[in-house]
Amino acid sequence: MTKLNSKWKEPFVFERISNIYTFSKDPLLQKNVHKHIFIPWNESFCDEFMFKLKKQIIQNGKCHVPFLNEDLTKGFIAPELIEELKGQIEAGIETHLIMSNLDSIHVYRLDDIHKSHKLKAGIPELDKNNYSIWFELGDMYVHQANHVDECESIECALESLIMDQQTHSLFVPFNTFKIAGTKEEVVTPSRWLEIERNLTYDYFIRTCELEENVYQDSWNLLSKRTQHCLISSELARHKGILLRDEEKVELLKESFEFYFSAVINELNEVYIRPLIKAFHQYDCLREAWEEIHSGLVHPKITEMIGEFIKDDNAQIDSIEKFLEYQVSAKSFLFSLKNKFTKKINHKEFLLIENFLCRQESLIESFSCRHLDRKLESLLEIKECIKSLIDNRDKMELNELKDYNLKLTHLLTIMASTHYEDNIFFKLVEEKTSKGVIKRSFEDEVKQLKRFSSSFNDKKAA
Question: Which of 35, 346, 376, 399 is the 20 to 30 Å CA partner of 265?
Fold first, then answer.
């Protein structure tokens, strides 16, 4: 158990800039400062505290945690801060409770705040005390676990989590894609706790490999959903390296499923969720939609936007649907934008016009960069895998071997550092309106030499 530094021994409320969607040059949603909570914990006062909270959420759909000090005594939080936090939650703003003991960092979704002396946590160490302020938590994300026994790395990650701008919503549903013969299934879990995210040492190593060597400066620009799917894809692909025949087929299929899921999630992140948030934040945008939708020539776009307006957690759950959206989105966005052009009597009209211009340019850029062809290639791979699953009992071992070799090669290319082959580099550029800079082979060698020199200096000292 790592001893907490004094800085992290007390609970506190902190402010963090929310720059969700605006970091992609989207001028609609302005930067906002939102309040969140930090609470320390120490296992010498409550053994396996985080596991107990997780169990409560899984069993009951929620758990309750008081505003407490490291030693489980009641902490003080000003009444005005409670009201501000409650106002945030009621406004639909994602609000976090961060807990850490400097061995790991957990982020909880704060759903409500209760003032009560009668509430119980269901955890004996807490329920013997008398708390008056309780936080209702509905989901949990493990932000970091200490796999290398370095307290400083966890502390740096905690400092960054609290101080840096928030550029992604963490607690949003995401798509997981499965192939079963000619059939396919897309499941949209609403919580991280519904996902089998096991933070093993292998998971940690694959995360470091992708962050430091493959995606580099682009990694933190991908959503947490996309990151998880890419890590899981690499885990499955590497497990399949030493296997053969049908065992290898299953792991390669799993690797592709996770990669495919990552693509769907990032397409939603870049192109769809900003539009949904705009519809739900601005009444005048929905009114403009009501005026134009009956005149649109593409009925499928009308159906899609109708779903977006009904549910602010709506998403496109397949690449086929996204391609349908992309084909007709330009004319739909142009018609919508015309409803706000030259209307300068309201500030929000100008914001929405700029936003729709941005969305329109994203669709144009999508075609110019031939991203549609990349998606079509992924769909072709998907169909090949379906065909194999249906016919593998009829295949000779040599045919199975050739298939495994080809699919292994394609998966390696898709997750490589090559700009033209890895679709996520172009998606990051679309999201940020900035080019992706990759280190050359020579740069990588220089980094290795610097690491080697640093190690030798420490050894000599």
Answer: 35
DSSP string, 89-155: HHTT---EEEEE-SSEEEEEEEEEEEE-SS---S-HHHHTS--SEEEEEEEEEEEEE-SS--HHHHH
Average pLDDT over residues 48-54: 91
Distance between CA atoms of residues 169 and 38, nearest Å: 18
Q: Enumerate long-range contacts of 239-243, CB under 8 Å, 24 or more apart.
A: 240/408, 241/408
Q: What is the pLDDT of residue 206?
A: 95
- Give me the helices (H) in 316-370, please: 319-338, 347-368
Rounded to an integer, the average pLDDT of 72-99 is: 93
Is the distance from CB of 451 to CB of 244 less than 8 angstroms? no
Question: Which residue do the tokens 């002396």 mark?
Answer: 117
**Neighbour-count burial of 106, counting CB atoms closer than 10 A to its CB (0-12 exposed, 13-18 middle, 19+ buried):** buried
For residue 112, report the phi and psi dihedrals to the nearest 5 degrees: -165, 165
pTM of the model: 0.90
How deeply is 62 buried, as exposed, middle or buried, from its count of CB atoms within 10 A (0-12, 13-18, 19+)? middle
Specify the DSSP class assigned to residue 277: H
For the beta carbon of residue 124, count every other beta carbon within 10 angstroms.
Answer: 10
Pairwise CA distance, residues 236 & 411, whole Å: 11
